[in-house]
Amino acid sequence: MYISIPVIIDNKASLTGRDLEKRILKQHFFVFLLWLISKKEMHGYEVIKTLRSDSTLPSVAVSKIYPLLGELCKKDFISQRKVMQGKRARKAYHLTAKGKDALRKAKEHIRSSHLMLQFTREMMG
After folding, report:
1. I want to staple 92 with a disulfide (CB 3.0 to 4.6 A). Which of 25, 26, 83, 122 is the partner?
2. What is the pLDDT of residue 2?
3. pTM of the predicted protein model
4. Statement: residue 41 has pLDDT above 90
5. What is the 3-state secondary structure (H, E, C) of the chain?
6. For the chain, what is the domain count?
7. Nearest-CA neighbor of 69 among 60, 79, 61, 59?
8. Does any domain span residue 106?
9. For the domain that residue 119 is a member of, what is the CATH number?
């Protein structure tokens, strides 16, 4: 049985193989983006720069980040506001109440799963 963390992407019946792997990775990355944006309001390029500042993270193409941010906006997990930077307007992203709730549920899910807790503890050393 597949459990989403949290249910950000609509559930689909019987995913297998590569589709399941892609979906799990996407959901975890959505939670990661929510966590990152929860730390401070960020514009898209700032998200990209932050991700690139950690050389241990896999490189995520710019062409992938903006659609993911758009999807999180569309699903009301984050919202954007226009921020002027000199003469240039940028979209600054911040968590909505729904995004904060989704991040809280993801934390609860990880804490409530003995396997996830064991995995996290072992991975952290």
Report:
1. 83
2. 34
3. 0.78
4. yes
5. CCCCCCCCCCCCCCCCHHHHHHHHHHHHHHHHHHHHHHHCCEEHHHHHHHHHCCCCCCCCCHHHHHHHHHHHHHCCCEEEEEEEECCEEEEEEEECHHHHHHHHHHHHHHHHCHHHHHHHHHHHC
6. 1
7. 79
8. yes
9. 1.10.10.10
